[in-house]
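pinned: reference chain
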Amino acid sequence: MYIYCVIGASKELRERCPYSKGAIIWYDHCLFLKYLDANFFGKIDNKNKFSMTNVQAVENNPTLINEKVQELLSGLSNEASDANPKFYATGEVQLDTFTTLYGIAQCTRDLSNVDCKKCLDVAISELPNCCDSKRGGRVVGGSCNVGFELYPIVGT
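pinned: its structure tokens
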């Protein structure tokens, strides 16, 4: 599966950015591929960032959802950056009998543990700007990404 991801991402970058000195592509459940004509290894990339939101708003108790998103993702930020060689963590928290909140935190593996934590915490701090009281959202950057949804967002 991953070799297909690498081949597909490489091909897509060549097609979309044929004359670029740098490009980045994220594929959910697959990989992140980045190239640049400057050394970026081990440096937090705060320039290449975007957010995505689930357009559906939370109907019941949006304040609780916002608090639980911060709580869950802060814990995942700690887990992903704390001597975790994959720099990746997923988790969930039960909101009520019928509702589960799912989250993900991930860094590129060229970062130090300290820089991974910094990157994730900045991304988490940007979620209220895009995704306040929403059923899901994500901040994706050139060095890390965080996300949450009210449905499972990663395969098992």
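why pinned: DSSP finds three helices and seven strands in the chain. Strands lie at 22-27, 31-36, 49-53, 88-94, 100-107, 136-141, 144-149.
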